[in-house]
Design a protein that fits this description.
single chain, alpha/beta, 4-stranded antiparallel sheet
């Protein structure tokens, strides 16, 4: 299942944030996006994940024309096909780590999602903390729970917006290790936005978003 984004344009008032952005990815690809603050990196990620719509251009994931979906179809696509990880973990404080992971399956709590949630926490090195609440977890542990939650539906596309921004170096490296593992070992397409060039360069490709254009960084 490939990702194809073609000629994406987006403006806010008179400010053109994206001016014809193209991005193509294959299963197992892991790419990073860097660029100046305010260059539109988060906007691009939101558009790729269908949280926002482009003014023009097209996005297709496999055979699905994402930019052609509306309302409920779009919600269902997003919930099943895209996983999001943000700079803030956005965990609900009154839920345990496991319940936070299972939150996207609310209303469909069969045995399978619960087992998958436990397996995901185990893969993040958190099997002993599944009953702990976010307030008792470290920043890196909370972010790993958030990553497990993003993977509960086993999405082909994983989008991470500054997921290491609030972590120290060693914890940031751990999160990147997990993201790269999802691409290498699970065949997911992973896109990470970051200001950290050292972390960005660990990815298969690094793109620079500036003046509305996305260009592949020279190696």
């Amino acid at each position: 299942m490939n990702l194809r984004a073609l000629d994406l344009c987006k403006s806010f008032g008179d400010r053109k944030v994206l001016a014809g952005v193209d991005l193509t990815m294959q299963p197992g690809d892991a790419v990073s996006i860097v660029g100046p603050s305010g260059s539109g990196k988060s906007t691009l990620l939101n558009i790729l994940g269908s949280l926002e719509s482009p003014d023009s251009g097209h996005i297709a994931l496999g055979t699905v024309l994402v930019t052609g979906l509306k309302n409920r179809e779009l919600e269902l696509f997003r919930s099943k096909s895209v996983g999001f990880v943000f700079q803030e973990h956005l965990l609900l404080p009154h839920l345990t780590a496991l319940d936070n992971v299972l939150l996207p399956t609310l209303g469909r709590r069969t045995k399978t999602p619960v087992e998958l949630g436990r397996n995901l926490l185990s893969s993040m090195g958190l099997s002993e903390l599944e009953r702990d609440f976010p307030a008792t977890l470290s920043g890196g542990e909370r972010q790993r729970v958030a990553l497990a939650r993003a993977l509960i539906h086993q999405p082909p596309l994983l989008l991470a917006d500054e997921p290491t921004g609030s972590l120290d170096h060693s914890r940031a490296e751990e999160i990147v290790d997990l993201l790269l593992s999802e691409a290498q070992n699970r065949g997911r397409m992973v896109v990470m936005v970051t200001h950290n060039l050292a972390l960005a360069h660990r990815f298969k490709r690094t793109y620079v978003l500036e003046s509305g254009r996305l260009t592949l960084e020279a190696t």
